[in-house]
Each structure stands twice: as C-alpha cells, then as structure tokens.
Write a sequence for this structure.
C-alpha cells in the first residue's frame, strides 16, 4: 500500500501538469500555452497578486491563532489548515483580477475558459462529494482529505459566478 501511495502521487502530479498544458492550449485562441496581457493588465495583475498574498497571510495567521488556542480544532482541520487559507488567497487574487479586467488575457477565449472551469468544478465536486457521502466528513478525528476537493470545486464555482457577473456588468455598460 505504501509503495502504491508513493508511486501514485508523482504520477498524479505529472498527469495534472499535462492536463494543465492541454487546458491552456485549449482556452487560448492562438493555441499557445502562455497567456498574453497588455501593460495595464500586467500592472493590475501585480496588485491582484499583492491582495491575494495579504489574504493568504491573514488567513494563515487566523488559522495559526485558532490552532494554537484550540488543539481540537487544529487536529480536526488536518491538511485543511493549509489548504483553506491558500484557497482564500486564490479567491481574493482572482476576484480582484476579474473585476479589474486583468484576469482574462488578450488571447483567451472566454467560452472555452468557462467550459474548462465548469469541467474542473464538476470534477472536483464529484471527487469531494462521493467519498464524503460514502465515508462522512470526519475520518480518524480529522476532516477527510476529499473535503479539499469539495473546497476546490466551490472555489471554481465562485470564480465562474464572478466571471458571469463581470460579463453582465460589462454588457450593461456597453449598452449604456
């Protein structure tokens, strides 16, 4: 079992990286892996990364304080104590980028991007919900690891909703 687990993780990472390359080529109109941004977008993206970093730091401090003051919570959270602040930082960074027109690059196809994000959301939700329904949220006194997939699925849904809201705002502004 241990040798399978140690073999499965690197293979999973490699498969994930190959899928990222395929998805990037699919969502870019010019089939390049790299997304292109203009100068204004690059500056705004820097601000987005800064806000995401601050959110990550603040979230980690909160987790540290909560974990330091309550061993039971720290034990229950397990790996989630690392992933929850990370996802909060990502959501803040992407939210700022979306609403400042610097998330989608010059060569991105929004429709294809939304298809990929929907697929990733559903995949993560299924990977999170199926084991949790079968085995429950808590295993051996800790949040079950697939709970992280559930969080990732929700994060991607939030991103899709924000992009839809931004698209509606832009459409309304164009009509005026």
């Amino acid at each position: 079992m241990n040798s399978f687990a140690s073999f499965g993780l690197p293979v999973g990472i490699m498969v994930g990286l190959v899928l990222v390359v395929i998805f990037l080529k699919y969502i870019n109109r010019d089939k390049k892996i790299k997304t292109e941004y203009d100068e204004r977008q690059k500056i705004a993206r820097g601000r987005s990364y800064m806000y995401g970093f601050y959110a990550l730091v603040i979230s980690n401090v909160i987790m540290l304080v909560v974990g330091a003051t309550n061993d039971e919570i720290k034990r229950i959270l397990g790996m989630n104590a690392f992933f929850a602040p990370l996802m909060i930082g990502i959501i803040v960074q992407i939210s700022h980028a979306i609403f400042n027109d610097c998330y989608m690059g010059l060569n991105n196809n929004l429709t294809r991007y939304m298809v990929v994000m929907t697929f990733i959301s559903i995949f993560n939700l299924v990977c999170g919900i199926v084991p949790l329904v079968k085995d429950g949220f808590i295993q051996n006194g800790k949040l079950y690891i697939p709970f992280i997939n559930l969080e990732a699925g929700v994060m991607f849904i939030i991103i899709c909703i924000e992009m839809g809201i931004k698209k509606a705002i832009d459409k309304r502004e164009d009509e005026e």
Q: What stands out?
A: The mean pLDDT is 87. The helical segments are 2-27, 39-69, 71-77, 80-99, 110-135, 147-175. The beta strands are 138-139, 142-143.
